[in-house]
Design a protein that fits this description.
The protein is of the alpha+beta class. Helices cover 22% and strands 35% of the residues. It has a 7-stranded antiparallel sheet with strand order 1-7-6-5-4-3-2. Strand 6 and strand 7 form a beta hairpin. The relative contact order is 0.23. The model has no long low-confidence stretch (mean pLDDT 92).
Length: 156
């Protein structure tokens, strides 16, 4: 039996368009240390935090108000035996209307419990998705990593 991919979801009262706009604003909820565009199909952006984590994402689907998909082209962790653990994984943000609310479902395909980084990475994604991204949508202000600041969830 295949291990389940990491998934996190939430409901908000904002429209699918507002949720989509927030997801595409990666600097507003994940990290200020993003280089490149995060708001268009086929764009490539880089994330890094000190020497702990570097990754290169390509936007492979960008369907307004519905879906954004990133493909991890390169990854480097300094805390796992396999530094490339995320390379080749897919990150999916699906946005659906549910009655008078909007559901946002995030799935990191390939981030499974058998991976060494799963505990740290799933904790971090929960903080970013349930905390920062949801706050950006609901209040207009997320809680992204600040330039040069420590990341609490990665300090294990």
């Amino acid at each position: 039996m295949k291990a389940p991919d990491y998934t996190s979801s939430f409901l908000v009262s904002q429209s699918p368009a507002e949720v989509f706009k927030a997801v595409a604003n990666v600097r507003g909820w994940w990290s200020e240390e993003i280089e490149g565009r995060t708001d268009a199909l086929n764009e490539v952006f880089n994330y890094h935090h000190q020497d702990i984590h570097r990754t290169k994402m390509k936007i492979v689907e960008f369907v307004p108000d519905k879906k954004i998909v990133w493909h991890c082209e390169e990854n480097n962790f300094n805390f796992t035996k396999d530094a490339k653990e995320w390379t080749g994984t897919t990150l999916v943000f699906e946005i659906n209307k549910k009655g008078d609310q909007t559901e946002m479902v995030f799935t990191h395909i390939g981030l499974v419990p058998t991976e060494e980084c799963y505990a740290i990475c799933s904790d971090c994604w929960t903080i970013y998705i349930q905390g920062s991204l949801k706050a950006l949508i609901e209040t207009g202000k997320g809680k992204p990593n600040r330039l040069g600041a420590a990341i609490e969830c990665a300090e294990n």
